[in-house]
Each structure stands twice: as structure tokens, then as C-alpha cells.
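Proteins fold reproducibly. Look at a sample protein:
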Amino acid sequence: MSSLLWKDLIKELLANKVNILFIMLSLIFSLTALNTIYALGKSAEKQILDTLANLNFGKDALLILAGGSRVMGITTTRSDTLKLEDVKALEKLHFVQMTSPFTTGLVEVSYKGKAEKLRVDGVLPIYLQANNWNTFMGKFIDDKDVETINKVVVLGYDIAKKFGLNSLIGEKIKIQDQYYVVIGILEKKGSLGHFPLDERLFVPLTTAMKRIFNQDYIRGVKVLLEPETEIEAAVKEIRKILRQRHGLYGIAPDDFRIITPDMVVARHTATSKTLSAFLLAISLISLVISGVIIMNLMTASVEEKAGIIALRIALGATAHHIIRHYLFMALFIALTSGFIGWLMSLLVMYLLALLTPLRPLFSWGTFLLSLIFSTVTCVLFSLFPALKASRIDPAILLKGL
């Protein structure tokens, strides 16, 4: 760009500083929103993936839940057919490394006169290994507890914190109408989407089935596969075995669900993705609105300075020079707004990370996209006023001077 063009550009910007500022603010707002929303969406997805990895629910894991398809959140098939015998049958498969059956439900739990409904999980000692979990204090359920249907309980970290973290080991907690001895507290795990992992109590599986829920079936089983197992083939084989064991043939629907890590991620990020898509659409619409503002303000500027433009044309400026002038101005506004919008989004991300539990995930790709979006918007919507300026007839306008 020549020094003369730079001078003309600076003069134009200074002469229209209010309009230019208005254009830049609309672009900066749109791009800040675009960058921040994208960063929050990516952060939510990463948090889910990290939590799944922390729970040892990666590509070599499956979750089998009792009950088949659901309509409006209600299971449409029986949910009492998944048994411990099914788990033993699955353990014989060559690609199954480990199984961890469980049952779960909301029951009334009370401690020192305070009662509330809490989630109680019945599990086996292998639960910690299967979920990559450790005790924070005390010990976990052992084989003897399972064999003797022992009335012992291990608390999730948040439950323990609610009841009084440092003084619970050996204390008795009432679950329904029976007292259970607290033998341990698990380390903090956080949450999976909106599901709090640390607000649960754990008892031996046999205790849960016989003393608390009075059932002979389980709610689910986590299956860890041998490394390099093809997950689709494993799902197909497991489904075949469970259908045979449950007497399901032909078009009879499954009375169980097999859930893969990809399905969990899709489920827990669906809401955030929908919201992000909606907000991104709004941001893109605001970019288009910014473009319309650019076009209108530049068109008004062209009409106001028609005489000056005509004079420049009369003195030898070509249509190419006029168009280039306006497009360079649009490019300058776009790049400046894009950069400031990126800096503003970094500030917003920092404040969100500082003041809220949210952890926006920065991406250089988003920064480049914001520059591309702002550039395309500015240049595209500047074409009309630029072409209009280049077509001004100096002979007609100069008659009025």
C-alpha cells in the first residue's frame, strides 16, 4: 500500500470516526460473542471427556443398563431382567477384561437428625479399580462385606463434607430404617455433565439388593474390554448373548441398553451444543447486521463526499483507485475489529475462569476464523458503496460546484 493511500485512509477514518467506531463496536461485540461461545462449547466437551477418562470410561469400556428403549424418559420394557448370572456369562467372553455390576436408587438417609433423599449405589470391591477411583479416608468395601451382607457404607466426598468430613469414620448413618457404619470416604471426582459423582453413598452390592432395595436383579454393569477390542463387534456379541439369556427373539425389543463413551459424550453435550449453535447463529446474524450497518454508513459517506470523490476522479483517479480505497478501509476495520474482538474474548474467558466454575478453552483456529468472518463481512458489504463511489460522474457533479 502506497504512502498516499495510507494518508487517504487515515484521513477518511478520522473524518468518519464516529461512524467507524460504531461499525467497529458492532463487529467487536459479534466476534467476542463468537469466540467465547465456541470456547465454552469446546470446554464443556473436554470436561466430559476428561471426566470419562478419569472414570476409566474410555474407548475400551461399555455400560449396560437394565431396561430397553425409553419414551418421555420412561422405560418401555422390563427393567428387572439383568441379573448377576448375566454378568458371569459376559465375563467368559475373550474380549472382556473386567466387569463391575451395580444397583442404585434414591433412598432416605439420615444423620444426626437430618434426613434427605440421597443416591445409594450397591457395588463390589472391584468398583474402585473399574472406575479409577481411590479412597480419601478409611477403606472401601471388601469381599467379606459382600459375602456377609454387611451393613457398612462408604461416602462420596460431597456427602462426607456435608455431614462433617473429619469425624465420620466409625459413625453410624441411617439408611431407610437400618444403621450402617461409615468405613470410608472416596476422593473427589467432580461431575459428569449435570450428574454429581460425589453426592452418592456406596454399600456392598448384596446389601443393597437384599437389605435396601429387596431385589434379585441389578441396574447395570460396567464392562472393560481388552485393549484394541473393536467396540462395535463387542457390542454386537454382548447384545446377542443377553438377548438369548433373556429369551428375546425376532422383533422383540431389547430389555437392556448398551452405552458407549461416544453416546455419553453426545448425551451430555447435546444441550450445550444446541445452546451454542443457537448463540452462534445469533452471533453470525449480528455479523450480518454489522455488515448492513457498514454498507449503509459507507453509502451515506459516499453520498456526503460525492463532490470530493468526483474531484478525485476528474484529477485522474480511476475506478480501481476508488474501489481499492474503500476496500482497504474495510480491510483495516475488519482486521482491527477482529484483533480487538479476540482480545476482548480472552478477557471474558479469563473473567469467566476467575469468577465461575467455567473453563473456556482457547483455540487459535477460532481466532483465525474470527478474522476471516470479520474480513469477509466488511469487504463483502463494502463492495456496494465502493462500486457506487467508483461510478460517480464527475462531469455532472462538478456543474454544481
Remarks:
- The chain has two domains: 3-51+268-398, 80-254.
